[in-house]
# Entry
Amino acid sequence: MDIRLLPMALKDLDEVMSIEKQSHVSPWTIGNFTDSLHAGYWAYSLRQLAVDDEARDPLLGYCVLMPVLEELQLLNITIAPDFQRRGLARKILRVIEDAAQSKSFTDIFLEVRVSNLPAISLYQTIGYHEVGRRKDYYPLPNGQREDALLMKKSLVNE
Ligand SMILES: CC(C)(COP(=O)(O)OP(=O)(O)OC[C@H]1O[C@@H](n2cnc3c(N)ncnc32)[C@H](O)[C@@H]1OP(=O)(O)O)[C@@H](O)C(=O)NCCC(=O)NCCS
# Structure
């Protein structure tokens, strides 16, 4: 599959929102994405190159990271349901890590729901480890709350 990672743009957001709503317990709003773009966060869209010249390259996934001094915080990474388990999230994160290292960022942090086993498994397989837990951090649809795991990957060769 021919794919490319491009800076996310406002024109991507209809497709982004369609995937976002299918993928998360508490989806981001379109405002969360526009605020991230306007703030200059790292935001990328992963597209498949369309076979048909007339067709628009379909959106496969996206990510948003917030730079804070020498660290990046992974705020959102999502792969469209039909394209999961093909190594795409791992590929996106590898590209992000290479770019971050070349700009001398030292670490990537993220928060993830304790129930989100696919995401936790992804992060563990690519070298993130747990550095903390935030109790009752995320709302659940039933009105209860669940903890967040705080995970980190160092980009500095120790
Ligand atoms: C989490 C998510 C981004 C993973 O994307 P993906 O492209 O399917 O992940 P990859 O194919 O790159 O998976 C890499 C590794 O992560 C682990 N993994 C990914 N999905 C998994 C699943 N459903 N169950 C168990 N392990 C999984 C596996 O170790 C996998 O390697 P393998 O396929 O060789 O076994 C995707 O499931 C998703 O978009 N989920 C909904 C949104 C979300 O929860 N985002 C994260 C919020 S913190």
